[in-house]
Amino acid sequence: MIKWFLSVLVLIFLPLSAYAVTGEDIFKSKGCSGCHSKSFDSFAPSLSTISKSYYNKKEDLKAFLRGNKPGLIKGEPKTMKGFINLTKKLNDSELEALVTYLLSF
Ligand code: HEC
């Protein structure tokens, strides 16, 4: 009985732990891709502009997404405010993954 129970637990938790959330998953699931394109600057800066502006400034990007610092590109966020409310709730490893994704362009 206990063996059966343990194998059910393993079957449930193994796939969960094997699944690592990527920065791209977060970027898409939080709706960021609706405004930020990879290389085209619209009213929202593109990921390539973000990557260039935050080159070697990863901590500033994290502080912006935590709501602790104005942006380097546009200063005080207006449109982004609601989305910072989403990114400030990410845990450290999720934020790290998102920032690594944003800086990979
Ligand atoms: C509704 C459109 C929209 C969505 C969705 C959106 N953004 Fe933005 N983002 C903007 C705009 C516009 C700016 C320019 C600053 C401002 O006006 O807030 C910006 C600026 C930024 C910047 C640069 C900040 C600076 O000035 O240095 C980053 C980084 C960023 N967004 C990341 C994200 C992430 C991550 C998400 C998803 C959680 C996201 N954005 C979702 C519109 C959007």
From TrEMBL:
It holds the Pfam family Cytochrom_C. Coiled coil: none annotated. Keywords: Heme, Iron, Metal-binding, Signal. GO terms for molecular function: electron transfer activity; heme binding; metal ion binding. InterPro entries: Cyt_c-like_dom, Cyt_c-like_dom_sf. Residues 18-105 form the Cytochrome c domain. Residues 1-20 form the signal peptide. This is Cytochrome c domain-containing protein. It comes from Caldimicrobium thiodismutans.
